[in-house]
Amino acid sequence: MRPNHSALQTKVDDYMDKFERSEYEAQQAALARLNAMDDDGFTLVTRAGNKGYNTDGVIKVQAIKAEDVKNIKPKKKELQDFYRFQMREAKRDSTLIFLLVFEEDKIKIEALKVNRRFKPY
Q1: Of 94, 20, 100, 3, nearest in space to 57 by CA
Q2: Closest CA to 44 of 35, 52, 54
Q3: At 85, phi and psi to the nearest 5?
Q4: Are 63 and 54 in contact (CB under 8 A)?
Q5: How far is 86 from 94, CA to CA, in rounded Å?
Q6: What gap in Å lies between CA 18 and CA 13, rounded to an integer?
Q7: How far is CA 119 from CA 109, 115, 116, in A?
Q8: CA distances (Å), 110 to each of 81, 105, 114, 118, 119, in order?
Q9: pLDDT at 115 (0 to 100)
Q10: Coil, strand or helix: which one is 47?
Q11: Whole-model pTM?
């Protein structure tokens, strides 16, 4: 039922060789298309590669600046004002707060005007 280890190893090696060859050919075809001239004489400008990435062949790691690390904010766990009625309620609440603060400020200004006296000396 189970194949011989050496026969299985040769099948796996052949498959991996074919896969690596096809990957290499695809990479070479992409390099050939890179900045190639078309029939009209125009050059198609394409992106060259992985700028800012470090790789060991298996894992890609994107480089990041130290000052950018400080500015990274944690992602919010829950969405705020997802539904339309929530957005309307939030807007209404904020306008009510502004109106209350405005009324309080008007009262304070009137009190300051009343307390102000003309002092010539």
Answers
A1: 20
A2: 35
A3: -65, -30
A4: yes
A5: 12
A6: 9
A7: 19, 12, 9
A8: 38, 9, 6, 16, 19
A9: 84
A10: coil
A11: 0.35
Strand ranges for the chain from DSSP E: 53-55, 60-62
Residue 72 tokens read as 């990274």
pLDDT (tens digit, 9 = 90+) per residue, 53-70? Answer: 666 666 666 667 777 777
Q: Which amino acid is at 12?
A: V
**DSSP-derived secondary structure letter, 37:** B
If you average pLDDT over residues 23-41, what whole number do you get?
84
Say how many CA atoms lie within 13 Å of 103 toward its Cβ. Answer: 5
| 41, two tokens | 């004489």
Instruction: Enumerate long-range contacts of 86-89, CB under 8 Å, 24 or more apart.
Output: none
DSSP letters along 13-31, please? HHHHHHHHHHHHHHHHHHH
Which residues are paired to 54 by β-bridges? 61
Pick the closest to residue 44 from 55, 54, 30 (CA basis). 30
- Pairing type for strands 60-62 and 53-55 reads antiparallel
